[in-house]
Design goal:
Number of strands: 0
Number of helices: 12
CATH class of the largest domain: Mainly Alpha
CATH topology of the largest domain: Endonuclease III, domain 1
Structural class: mainly alpha
Distance between the termini: 23 Å
Radius of gyration: 19 Å
Shape: elongated
């Protein structure tokens, strides 16, 4: 992603975005990104409906099952499928999440999930492909586009954090509608991912998060 070009465009296209950029500072979205497609989707399942700290602990325990000498690593799909369910559950995975993870591993192993073709696929094609996995919906797919594939023009309107950030940044009395957010974000194209990152960071700053 070309951060400099994105920031220049956003500053020119929207005075609210210009203010957020001045408040937040340089874009550091790459610091939050991963390059492991399968591992990112595994973690996406683990982190669902859990606090960050709890999910991080489970993820570390999960990876420790497949490492050596105390060093954990993200397993390959086939390794997950070969591992007994009881062993996988022992790290703190619920039965439902274990089912999702095994479905993810099975679809990655048999080629239903196009892990090696994502780079050449459009955003909509990636979303359609990954949402075939049980437990992965559009929101998770959009986070995957942003933080793993690093696509520059994703606007995750279903994300509650984005909705609250819009409300605060634009001084709205209530949470905005999807249609309103899409209209407001239209001038941000083709850098809606970077704009979304600034909205998230501004919201975190507002509530005192680091």
């Amino acid at each position: 992603m070309n951060h400099s070009a994105a920031v220049r465009h956003l500053k020119k296209s929207d005075p609210v975005m210009r203010r957020l950029i001045a408040t937040v500072g340089p874009c550091r979205i790459e610091d939050e990104c991963s390059t492991n497609e399968f591992g990112t989707l595994v973690d996406a399942i683990i982190y669902q409906q859990l606090s960050y700290k709890a999910a991080q602990t489970i993820s570390r325990r999960f990876q420790s099952l497949f490492g050596r000498n105390g060093a954990g690593r993200m397993p390959r799909p086939e390794e997950i499928l070969r591992t007994p369910r009881r062993k996988l559950r022992s790290v703190g995975l619920s039965r439902q999440k274990l089912g999702y993870m095994r479905d993810l591993a099975a679809k990655a192993a048999d080629g239903t999930l196009h892990l090696r073709r994502f780079a050449s696929m459009t955003d909509d094609e990636v979303i359609a492909n990954v949402t075939q996995v049980k437990g992965i919906g559009r929101w998770t797919a959009e986070m995957f586009l942003i933080f793993c594939l690093r696509r520059p023009d994703v606007l995750p309107v279903d994300d509650l954090g984005i909705q609250y950030a819009f409300q605060h940044a634009y001084g709205l009395r209530k949470l905005p509608s999807e249609a309103w957010m899409r209209r407001t974000a239209e001038p941000w194209r083709p850098w809606r991912t970077v704009a979304s990152w600034y909205l998230w960071r501004a919201r975190r700053k507002e509530i005192g998060a680091k």
